[in-house]
Amino acid sequence: RHRAMTLSLWAIRHPFLPLLAITLCSLLGLASLAQMPLRHLPALGHDTITAQITAPGLTLAETDITLAQPAEAALGTLPGVTRSHVDVTAGRLILTLSLADPAHADTVTATLRDRLGSLQGRLSIATDPAIITAQSSRGQAATRVALAPAAGGMALIDQHLLPELQRLPGVDSVTADGLTRPETAIRPDPLRLAELGLTAGDLHRQITARLATGGLGAASGTSGLSLAVTEGTDRTDLRALPITLAYGRSIPLAELATLTKTEAPQTSRARLNGQPAVILTVHPDSTADLPALLGAVAETTTRFNAAHPGHEARLIDRQADTVTAALRGTGMALLE
Question: Of 127, 181, 175, whose CA–CA distance to 154 is shortest?
Answer without folding.
Answer: 181
